[in-house]
Write a structure and sequence with these properties.
This protein is an alpha+beta fold. The chain is 25% helix and 50% strand. It has three helices and nine strands, in the order H-E-H-E-E-H-E-E-E-E-E-E. The chain has a nine-stranded antiparallel β-sheet. Strand 2 and strand 3 form a beta hairpin. The chain starts with a helix and ends with a strand.
Length: 135
């Protein structure tokens, strides 16, 4: 009986991993061109709007401009948030630039969301982003 219970637990665990992988696969292989806009407080600290390319691949997400300042690609979580919507979240860190938390919603060929960056010195900058899927 113990073996049957253990076998059932392992099967459930593998099923959950497969389900999570299927969800990540919904965004894997896609790239998005977005405009990242600082909020008013970040603007007063000198932050500027910039263009970014977000790429989901192999269960990780990378940002081209973020990589230039030390933010490496990171894993991401994704959940279905409507009939055709997917919400994602990723946390990235950089030894020189601090920590960035990206959250966004993908709707067909559109994406939008928020980035919260906590600099090494503790300053917090908030941005919004919006863009389109690259073909």
């Amino acid at each position: 009986m113990k073996n049957l219970v253990w076998l059932a637990a392992v099967a459930i665990a593998f099923g959950m991993v497969a389900f999570a992988s299927d969800k990540v696969a919904e965004l894997d292989g896609t790239s998005w061109k977005v405009s990242v806009v600082p909020d008013d407080m970040a603007k007063t600290k000198g932050e500027k709007e910039y263009k970014e390319t977000i790429t989901f691949a192999n269960g990780s997400v990378s940002m081209t401009e973020g990589q230039k300042v030390g933010f490496a690609s990171s894993s991401y979580d994704v959940t279905k948030s409507g009939d055709k919507d997917w919400t994602f979240k990723s946390e990235q860190s950089s030894d020189s630039s601090g920590r960035a938390i990206w959250t966004g919603t993908v709707h067909e060929k559109h994406v939008e969301g928020k980035v919260i960056v906590t600099r090494k010195g503790g300053a917090v900058m908030t941005y919004t982003f919006k863009g389109e899927k690259l073909d």
